[in-house]
Amino acid sequence: MRTLITGATGRVGSRYAGQQLAHRQPIRVLVQTEDQAAAWWNRGAEVIVGDLCDTDAVKLAVTGVDAIVHLAAALDDYATTGLAEAARDAGVPRLVCVSTNLVSGPEHTMSFVTMDCLFCRIVSGEIPATLVRETDTTLAFRDIMPKAVSHILVIPKEHYADVATLAQADAKLASDVLETVAIVAEHEGLVADGFRVIFNTGEYAGQEVSHVHAHVLGGEPLGPMLAT
Ligand code: 5GP
Ligand code: ZN
Q1: Å from CA of 77 to ligand 1 middle
Q2: Could you tell me which residues come within 8 angstroms of residue 125 by beta carbon, excluding any fewer than 6 positions away?
Q3: Where on this chain is Histidine triad motif (motif) (predicted)?
Q4: Cα→Cα distances 12→7, 85, 162, 225, Å
Q5: Among 30-39, 74-83, 125-134, 202-211, whose mean pLDDT is lowest?
Q6: The model scores a pTM over 0.90
Q7: Which residues participate in catalysis according to the annotation?
Q8: How far is ligand 2, taken at its centre, from the CA of residue 118, in Å?
């Protein structure tokens, strides 16, 4: 079943679209920029570039899909009605509209700020990265400024500031991150000679990105643990 997903660059939409791809479900996304388009294309989605208020783009996007999942923070009247009309004209049998504000509830409203977070934007596909592995809950990608022959970052898709916060809030997700660390280390051929896993946490450790990430380093002797 081919599904059109709107809002795929949003917080809920990116997770939903990512999960569909992980389950090898064919998806099409409607995104606004060429960068977003390239990122979703690289992940295996069919892509239409355009705005929900652009009738031609919407017409193209709904043609030939079996279902539409419309994910928007608030369901804007104009865009949602336009999409529903295009779906009817194209004979799309299923249209699901979800207000993602309502999905998370007011207690999660704060997490909207996470779209300012660099790694959340990598999860959503808005910023490209060289992906090494993706699971339902985690993502592994190459560090943009590698400090060793192999330097991979492993993150949970959900935003937590650091490893201590993650471990206390969601032990299962913390273990998913470690499992991905282990699998990545194995696939990179780091296990036999050894490798290092670092979670910089807070100011003294020099943590620059406030989205928990494991650095997986190896492929050569790594020297002393701390700079001397
Ligand atoms: P921290 O200092 O927070 O432990 O590590 C942050 C890491 O993220 C650094 O090693 C840095 O090179 C990496 N990084 C920063 N920006 C980007 C980016 O846009 N893409 C990727 N792949 N890595 C990044
Ligand atoms: Zn984040």
Answers
A1: 39
A2: 8, 9, 14, 17, 18, 36, 39, 40, 43
A3: 211-215
A4: 8, 24, 21, 38
A5: 74-83
A6: no
A7: 213
A8: 6
Q: Which protein residue has the closest C-alpha to ligand 1 atom 16?
A: 144
Domain 118-218, CATH among 3.40.640.10, 3.40.630.40, 3.30.428.10, 1.10.10.10: 3.30.428.10
pLDDT, tens digit, for every residue of 85-109? 999 999 998 888 888 777 655 434 4
Instruction: Give the type of residue at 199.
Output: F
Amino acid at 214: A
Give the DSSP per-residue string, 47-100: EEE--TT-HHHHHHHHTT-SEEEEEESS--HHHHHHHHHHHHHHT-SEEEEEEH
Point out the ligand 1 atom lying closest to the alpha carbon of residue 147: 10
Ligand 2 centroid distance, CA of 87 (Å):
34
| 126-181 residue pLDDT tens | 889 999 999 999 999 999 999 999 999 999 999 999 999 999 999 999 999 999 99
- Going by CA atoms, what residue is nearest to atom 12 of ligand 1? 145
